[in-house]
Write a structure and sequence with these properties.
103 residues; mainly alpha; flat
């Protein structure tokens, strides 16, 4: 019995493909996104909830609600990212060295 079990284990381990399971959270491999604030995360969660509801019931009304939320989230994410890039990554003029003069 032991020899058979070892042969079976060896066969399974060396010939069958192994399924890789990813962490559902996937935070480790993803680059940080500082523009993704808590309010946007809530909107994304609502989008996922609406999609799951649509998959369960398959009504045109639920599809319309989902697509409206999906489009809103997409535009909000794009706006937040561009605002972050404009505000955080572009150099701001240094006003401490040159105070305004009145005249």
């Amino acid at each position: 019995w032991t020899r058979w079990k070892l042969k079976r284990h060896h066969y399974i381990h060396h010939t069958l493909p192994h399924k890789k399971i990813q962490n559902s959270n996937r935070k480790r491999g993803r680059a940080p996104r500082p523009w993704l604030l808590q309010d946007l995360r809530q909107e994304i969660k609502l989008k996922h909830k609406l999609f799951r509801s649509y998959l369960k019931h398959r009504t045109p009304d639920l599809w319309k609600k989902y697509t409206t939320q999906r489009n809103k989230v997409t535009s909000d994410l794009r706006r937040a990212k561009s605002n972050f890039i404009l505000n955080e990554l572009t150099p701001q003029p240094d006003t401490t060295d040159n105070p305004p003069t009145t005249g």
